[in-house]
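User: hey, got a sec? need Thioredoxin domain-containing protein folded
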Amino acid sequence: ATGCKLHRRCTASRRGGVSRNVSGAAALSASVYICKAAPERLSPRSCYPLAVWARPYLFVLMGFLESLHLYRKVPTDLTDATRLGGLLSLCCAALMAYLFVSNTAQYLTVHTTTDVALDDSGENTMRVYFNITMERLPCQFASVDVSDVMGTALTNVTQNIVRFKVSAAHGHRTAEYYQEVAAAEIVHEELEPHELAALDALPSMLPTLDDSMFEPFIKSHDLVLVAFGAPWCPWSQRLEPVWLKTWQALKSKPYAKWVRMGKVDCTSPGSHLTCQRHHIHAFPTIRIYRQRQSHSHENYLGDRSSEAFISFVEEALPRHLQGIVHPAALPAPSTAASSLSTAAESHSLDGEGCQLTGWLHISRVPGSFRISAQSDSHSFNTRVMNVSHHVDRLLFGYLEEAPLRLHKLVNIEERSSLYQVSFMMHQEQATLKHYLKVVPFHHHALNGDVTKTYMYKANYNEYRPRKLEWYEGKADAHVDTQLVPNAVFHYDISPVKVVVVEETQSFASFVTKICAVIGGIYTVVGLLDNIIYHGGQAAAKKLG
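Assistant: Yep! Here you go:
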């Protein structure tokens, strides 16, 4: 029997009562025996250690493995070394080290692949974030309107939008932001027919100011109220009799010598420069000048009635004479007609701009949003209106879904067309229009996260509507409010998306490239060494 367990007698006989310290394979070969007798006839002579029995087979196996050796060794004494071979070996080692480091760096680098696919996200809405400064459009009139091909038409959108007053001369933002006045509409006084007849019968002493009279008129009185208007403007027509009635009422007041009222016809050639220099964008514009200074003023925003005007003068004049100029320093008056904090806003002669910051919720269909002048109680002077603007940022998508790492990797803001760029208005009554082609952008991170955002390309054009051709040369012509200069951002969503996928080189590919590079260099340098060596030997034999 073979492979049997060693009998107790056989074990004791083989070991001779001596304890041996064996381990590993030696312990296995010393404790396993091959027995050639039946179990009942076992003796020490009938059992042999496994190592003794398997020795011939091990010799055969080792000889077979030696025959398979592809990299046979040559004794050093039988080889020949040269200086040129040593130089080639140094170059070979340096090149191997360089390529190894380069491939390792490439293996550790994250690469991206870009592809284009049909956009099947199924999203119906998106956001557009913007930070736009209208350099010559006051916040009082700045309006954001949204429309699209599905019939959406939103005017004067204020939700999620913050407005800041901007100095038109210096281009920097003022300290406070613009806050909408309460939703109460401006009250327009309607005079009775007999009141109109009585005003027509009275000799009007209300001065009409032109370019030469304006500055002396302002500097000759402590408090001056001036109404800028146009004959074609319906709001100016409604204000004309009320303004005259207020002037007649003020003449009987004890403080009449401190107050003067006047009007300016901005369509008149003699006063056109005054309206332009004072940035009169809308009609009627009522301004208050104090302390005989024309470089600073306040816009009156209260009700347009004689009672409201007189109440405003009574609130302002005593405090003005006491040296209080800025309306913000005054306590809130008890009268409901108007107050210095809500009925008037302080401005400078340099004009006012407006910075609009926020976001709009729009549908993913072609549409546009525009920034223009809008008012329910004014008509606009389109010839002096300026919609030059500076786009600091304009982005599409949901910014909270785009991590900071994606912004650093893709640099979405700087790769967008409208990033910290200004657009100037070069002609009157022009519209500045931007055409934005928006492309969905999906980024697949290495860890499996998918970020969805948008990128776009913009084109720009400045043009005048054809309807304005009829108004050329007609300074007193009424221009349709739809033709008011504005800044338009027309967007169109692409049906395809750009997919960027992060990926790295696999470890198997890295090992393959390392072996190929090192092995290839070793082989090529070896061939080159053999060619040089044997070529030199052959040349030496011919010369020798």
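Quick note: Residues 8-67 form one domain. Let me know if you need anything else on Thioredoxin domain-containing protein.
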